[in-house]
């Protein structure tokens, strides 16, 4: 009886999946690993540029001023004697309606949605480097399509941005000569180019690499894989416990 109990409970009798020591399971090919890395880079670049107020540079009251879609650095306030003084700090607008123009409000929503989509795909791609059977070829292509949509949204936001250059707040910063698609005395900042470059890379390079990302041709659900392994353990235990 004791021998039977030891034989049944010995873990060496249970099926253990073969795994090479020191290796990490991945559902991505070599091209898929490159795709995951570039997806993370483009998502971080676009999202960081979205939050930084360095899309547009100008000056007001002799002080440098910079904008993004919903943030601004250095702004005028009424001081003593109703004179204007510049507060040298960065911050976002008090409310969504306080954003200077309708075009910038639309740009804020569209660009933010695109950045969120790129970050979501990048997170799934990075997890695919560490988890087996997470990303198939079909899933990779679907994620590539989502990246194309995300890049398209960010590109649309960049295209909408110049439509707000005719607002009074921007004209005061750009020498009162700016207009739609006319900067006046202002200039575009590096964050604007970084956001557009990240969107372009996501649409062109990442979307193309996603077609070759998945290692398995068909999607395999993790739950089914876990249940399959669990059933094999249960069958072995049931076999050894039978008299």
UniProtKB/TrEMBL annotation:
Transmembrane segments: 34-57, 102-130, 142-163, 190-212
Keyword Nucleotide-binding: no
InterPro entries the record matches: LHFPL (IPR019372)
GO cellular component, one term: membrane
Keywords tagged on the record: Membrane, Transmembrane, Transmembrane helix
Topology in membrane: Multi-pass membrane protein
Keyword DNA damage: no
Subcellular compartments: Membrane
PANTHER family on file: LHFPL TETRASPAN SUBFAMILY MEMBER 1 PROTEIN, LIPOMA HMGIC FUSION PARTNER-LIKE PROTEIN
Name under which the protein is recorded: LHFPL tetraspan subfamily member 1 protein
Species: Sousa chinensis
